[in-house]
Amino acid sequence: MILIHLKKHLDTAEGALEAHYELSINDGEFLTLFGSSGAGKTTLLRLIAGLEQPNSGKIEVDGEVWFDSERRINLPPQKRSIGFVFQDYALFPTMSVRENLLFAAENAEQRKGVEELIELVELSQLAERRPDTLSGGQKQRVALARALVRHPKILLLDEPLSALDPAMRAKLQNELTRIHSRLGVTTLLVSHDIAETVKLSDRLASVVSGRIERVCPPMEFFSPQTLSGKLQLIGEVLKIEEDFPAVIVTLLVGSSIVRTVLSATEASELRMGEHAIISTKAFNPILIPLP
Amino acid sequence: MEAEFLSTMALTFKLAAVTTVILLIIGIPLAAFLVFSRMRFKSIIETIVSMPLVLPPSVLGFYLLLAFSPASAIGSFMSEHGIRLAFSFEGLVIGSVLFSLPFMVHPIQSALSGVPKTIFEASYTLGKSKLQTMMRVILPSIRHGVISGIVLAFAHTVGEFGVILMIGGNIPDETRVASIAIYDEVESLNYAMAHQYALTLFVVTFAILLLVYTLNKKSLGGIR
After folding, report:
1. B141 contacts in A (CB within 8 Å)?
2. Which residue among A86, A106, A132 places its CB closest to the CB of B223?
3. Burial grade of B203 (CB within 10 A; 0-12, 13-18, 19 or more)
4. Neighbouring C-alpha atoms within 13 Å toward the C-beta of B138
5. pTM (2 decimals)?
6. Model confidence over B22-36: pLDDT tens digits?
7. Please, which residues have CB within 8 angstroms of residue B217's CB and are 6 or more apart in sequence?
8. Which of A86, B62, B104, B115 could form a disulfide with B149 if both were Cys (CB 3.0 to 4.6 A apart)?
9. pLDDT at residue B109, rounded to an integer
10. What is the pLDDT of residues B64-81, one digit of tens each?
11. Domains of chain A by start residue, with CATH
């Protein structure tokens, strides 16, 4: 059980912000911090890792205090049982894949575990290669395996898949699910990708302007039950065109473009770049398998 | 004549080697300080490190000479402990270290500032201390900057003239290095000897630089 109660003064592009994080994470849970960029998701990850210092509050992991402003406790990152996967991978350039993992190992048992981890992320063929000879997806797998070497109590993933192409992303999402169910390590992921969040997480914590607004299962968040319909799709609003008296809205659903006609009042709540649910009630959608 | 030539060359390279080793020891922490420190007086230190690039060697030499004289605090303190700095090899080492400081610090500083912050942080989250991170992760990845610093500091010390002339004079086996010897031989119209020194310096420094750059290129090629 991880208990977080932190305050941090942030200087964002939109001005100063008093971030206030309240969150509890269950053992073995996969929790995603979801929100737009600049909301303070990565900051929370870095506060947990000890890479940044909160102004006040407390972090407690399985009864062990990592940070407590009142008791003046602040464990350095080295003393916290964490695995951190950075957005830019942060692999050590002069070390091979295996050396990157061995560097993290603290004892003989962890050194032995390195070979298993290399196999788990399917890098046996590349174990002697240097990071600069690997593709983005391969680097990400090395970074993930390296973060797992020390059997951390919590795995912190800072948008680890954002720099990859969609196919590689999907593949690594499956891999993350597989590794998480195999090792059962408590995982905190930062993401602003809906598909990724739904696919991977047990629960979602939505972060808005440095506050955790809501914690719930991802489907509940994206597709509220109050909306009953025969068909529900989630898409990103790409374009809102006025075509008097109606409005034509173009959405990206998955990798398909969907266009729909709305009245001006209906469209008034939509914003470009935001996500929306497409729901239809009156007709039964017909699904025919493609030949 | 030949023995004098050899001892002068030996002294020249001894001075360069001692200076380079001392610079390496103080240069890495100093470069790290300049890259990472957020202290207010950092730019003053940065300026002092870079001063030898623009300052005439005679200015540095003049003030060192004053500092080394037994009449000054430093000079009298040292002579109480039996060390004479003016017109001695020890004095030359101090002068050379100061004068070649930017040539060691700048390449390391620029290599260090090119290392992404997350590389340091990744190492810390893997339980490694700052010292372990520096020795095992950072120094290997900035080795080209360190090698450039070593080569430039060494070559610059071999080629030093003004500071040595001011604080060292021309004492055989103590302060008479090759660049001084060339000047001295030309003054006494002994062109053959001057040429011997000059050509040796030319060839040796060319060979050192060529060797280092070739090795550097090879080790880079090995990674790719």
Report:
1. 92-94
2. A132
3. exposed
4. 29
5. 0.81
6. 999 999 999 999 999
7. none
8. B104
9. 95
10. 989 888 888 888 888 788
11. 2-222 (3.40.50.300), 231-280 (2.40.50)
